[in-house]
Amino acid sequence: MSASITLAKGRDKSVRRRHPWIFSRGIDSVKGEPELGETVDVYANNGQWLAKAAYSPNSQIRARVWTFTKQNIDKAFFVSRIKSAILIREAFIEQGGLTGYRLIAAESDSMPGVTIDKYQDYLVCQFLSAGSEFHKQNIVDALIECFPECTVYERSDVAVRKKEGLQETTGVLHGNAPTEPIIIEENGIKIQVDILSGHKTGFYLDQRDSRLQSMKYVKGKQVLNCFSYTGGFGLYAQKGGAERVINIDVSQPALDIAKQNSEINGFAPKQAVFLNADVFKILREYRDQKTKFDVVIMDPPKMVSSKSNLTSGARGYKDLNMLAMQILKPGGTLLTYSCSGLMESNLFQKIIADAALDAGREVKFVESFTQAQDHIIDSAYPEGLYLKGFAAKVL
Ligand code: SAH
Questions:
Q1: Best CA proximity match to 232, nearest among 339, 134, 104, 324
Q2: Of 115, 185, 224, 308, which is most buried with the most CB atoms under 10 A?
C-alpha cells in the first residue's frame, strides 16, 4: 500500500477543478509515512480517489499533483509529459526558428516544480519541489530519451528549495558542460547565454515577444534600458535603429555579456553604453540633472514575492515608474513590466496611474504585453500567468 492523504471535508473543490496545489490546512489525515517528495494517492473526504501527488512535509503546499488519472509516476510518465510539452510548442518553435525556449513551464506543463529551458543542445533544469527532486533521475532519463543529443544541466541554486526542505545544487546530470559560450538566436539577434552562472537558467526567455514589440518605438531615439541584464531590450533597440542606448544593471558579469552580445551582432559600438549602477539611484540623478530620454524601458526583477510584501513591492513599482516618467521627454514612450505573479495586471495599471499623478504627467496606454508563448498557461492554474507589461505614451 502506498501512502495516501485524505482531504478535509469540503476541501476537494480545487483538486476537482484540477488545480495542482494541496495546502496543509486542506488535509484531514495522512496514511503511512511518506518521505520527502514521495508519490501519494489523494482521496476526497468521502473516500473517492482524486489524484496522485508529491508529498512535501516542509511546505505550506503540502502536496503537488502529478496526475488526475490513475497511472504510475515513472520515466514513461515524464516522457509523455515532455512529449505533450513539445507538441504544444512545436509550431511556434519551428516558425520562429527558436534555438532558446522554455520546454517545461512547471505547473503549467503539469510538472510541478520543474522548469526546463532549452538553449541549443543544452537542457537547463530547475527542480524546485520535493517531488521533482524525488523523481529527478526519472525526469533526466525521460529527457535523454526525448533529446538524446542534449546535455542536461541542473541549476537548482534557488532559495525556494529551502521551503521544500532541499539544498541548493548545480551541475551536469548528463553529457558534458559547455566549453565555449552558448549562443541562441532570437528574432534574428544573437544572444550569448551563460547557463553555468547566469541568472535563473541563464536568460530571460519570457520577454522575447515584448523585446520584439519594443523595436517599433526606438528608431532615432535616446533609449534608457533599465535592468538590462545581458542586453535584452537594448540589443533590440540597437537593431531597431536607436540613436543611443544606455543599458543599466548592477551585475557586472551580465553587463560584460551585454557588451559582447552587442559586438557579436555587429552593432555600432558608439550606439550603446553599459553602465554598472543602481537603477533607483541613477534615475534620481538623471531627474535632478534634468537629463531626458525618448524611451525608458523598465524591466525590474520580481518585487512582490509573497502576499505579505505586496504593499512594499507596489511602492517599489510606483517609485520606479514615477521616476521613469519624470525623465521622459513630452510624448516619450515608457515600456514597463512586472514579473510579479501576485500583482495582477489591473493593479499594475493602477500603480502606473498613481505614478502618473505623482509625476504630474498624462499617461496613455497604447499596447499591453504578456509572457512569450512558450511560457504557456494551464486553464486550471491561472498563477501561470505572471508577466505583464504596457507601452505608454507619457505627455
Ligand atoms: N530585461 C532583461 C531582464 C532583466 S532581469 C532581459 O530582457 O533579459 C533583472 C535585472 O535587474 C538583473 O539583471 C539584475 O542584475 C538587475 N538588477 C536588480 N536590481 C537592480 C538595481 N537596483 N539596479 C540595477 N539593476 C538591478
A1: 339
A2: 224
User: Rounded to a whole number, what is the distance in angstroms from the first to the last CA of the chain?
Assistant: 67
Task: Select from 197, 227, 259 the residue to mutate for testing ligand 1; criterion: most ligand atoms less than 8 Å from CB.
Answer: 227
280 lines ligand 1 (CB under 6 A): yes
Q: Are 130 and 59 within 8 A, CB to CB?
A: yes
Q: Is the CB of 253 under 6 A from ligand 1?
A: no
Element (H, E) at 43: strand 39-43
Active site residue 146: no
> From CA 379, how far away is CA 300, in angstroms rounded?
27
CA separation for the pair 168, 128 (Å, rounded): 9
Q: Produce one character per residue of 168-206: b if its CB has 16 or more CB atoms within 10 Å, e if not.
A: eeeeebbbeebeeebbbebbebbbbbbbeebebbbbbbb
Largest CA distance in the chain: 71
301 lines ligand 1 (CB under 6 A): yes
User: How many whole angstroms separate alpha carbon 116 and alpha carbon 97?
Assistant: 18
Spatial CA neighbour of 328 closest among 293, 283, 374: 293
Q: What is the DSSP string of 132-160?
A: HHHTHHHHHHHHHHH-TT-EEEEEE--GG
Task: Given the residues 146, 150, 226, 339, select the one marked as catalytic.
Answer: 339
Indicate the pairing of strand 39-43 with strand 388-394: unpaired
Q: Spell out the per-residue pLDDT of the chain, length 395, in tens.
A: 689 999 999 999 999 999 999 999 999 999 999 999 999 999 999 999 999 999 999 999 999 999 999 999 999 999 999 999 999 999 999 988 899 999 999 999 999 999 999 999 999 999 999 999 999 999 999 999 999 999 999 999 999 898 899 999 999 999 999 999 999 999 999 999 999 999 999 999 999 999 999 999 999 999 999 999 999 999 999 999 999 999 999 999 999 999 999 999 999 999 999 999 999 999 999 999 999 999 999 999 999 988 899 999 999 999 999 999 999 999 999 999 999 999 999 999 999 999 999 999 999 999 999 999 999 999 999 999 999 999 999 99
Residue 32's DSSP bridge partners are: none
